[in-house]
């Protein structure tokens, strides 16, 4: 019985424009979106950590900002590098690592948002019970 002994060492990324005139536009677009995301989240974290009155009520916002930075940094820098170098190849291990980090911080985002929503729900229910007295 014969088996398939083919091994995958790299993936070829498709879907982006092969037009060389579009490469600078894509590079500028992705770089600007990445910088706005990272700098915005860093400013949020800095604002929360610099004011002691915001530590308790905004604790989860700071965690959400950190998770967003890591979530975005899992894929966008590799994409920007691929656009710059005109490389459309990613190694198998690199792909698995990128997917692991992407899913990890994506789930972390979801969990922080869930905890924040539950906290708001508890506050609303608590206020409703106080007002009914």
TrEMBL record:
Keywords: G-protein coupled receptor, Membrane, Receptor, Transducer, Transmembrane, Transmembrane helix. The keyword Transcription does not apply. It comes from the Eukaryota. The keyword Membrane applies. The chain crosses the membrane at residues 25-48, 60-83, 89-105. Residues 40-133 form the G-protein coupled receptors family 1 profile domain. GO terms for cellular component: membrane. GO terms for molecular function: G protein-coupled receptor activity. It is found in: Membrane. It is a multi-pass membrane protein. This is Olfactory receptor 7E24. It comes from Heterocephalus glaber (Naked mole rat).
